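Hello,

Our lab assistant flagged a job as stuck in the queue for most of the afternoon. It eventually completed. Since we weren't sure the result was trustworthy after the delay, we are filing this so someone can double-check. Below is the sequence as submitted and the structure that was eventually returned. Let us know if re-running is recommended.
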Amino acid sequence: AGAPADFHPFSMTLFRGDDGAETLIAVDRKTSGRDMIETFNVTYDGETPKLSPQTAIQSGLLASPNGLAAASPDHFYVSNDRSTRGGPARFAEDYLLWPHADVLAYNGTGFRIAAQRLTYPAGLLLKNGILYVAAGNDRQISAHSQDMMGYLTPLGELSLPARPDKISLDNHGNLIVAAQAKPGSSQVYRVVLDARGVPQSYQTIFSDDGGVLHGASAAVIAGGQLFIGAADDNKMLACPFK
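-- returned structure --
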């Protein structure tokens, strides 16, 4: 309840404060083709959530917003999977793997470029002050420290045998990463971090050639199940998981 009529969330993140207050932040791809970031307060009627719109943020820097990671109700990171909207530069990013995409930091009033020269950064996740970035074309999960201004410094990365997309956490603090080893396939990896929080190793916990689920884009472990979503399919997969 409370979502705008023309609401098409491509990506979202939920921030829960120490007082339990929740803020939902979403990339909204309007039917007009315009992209914006929208924020909502989340309240509950029993177990039913309700959204109260707060802000709608637009910027010329939002070239192709994809992943989100909230640091507070009004501070967040958003990835542009491409930095251009068309023409030869977009061709170079898509087909020549030109590393020109970026991650933006929003400080409550405006955006700044926090990291750049990335190749298709899709998923973001913020944990213990470290931002994790899933770079699809590089087939890597990278870790970045952040300073007071929101600028990012690389700490290390881990290569995967697939194009990673969205990132979540399991109950043990490991990263859960949805990916595609080839077009249409679906893979999910558990990525283990070292003591510094840098990705160290991975384990495949789900793999399908596309016959069951076409193009995994997000995965979450909850309630003893692994839930897998796919941007290229019309269903979500639920698998018993220990």
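-- support follow-up --
The delay was a queue issue, not a problem with the job. The result is valid. Residues 229 and 236 are 5 Å apart (CA to CA). The radius of gyration is 17 Å.
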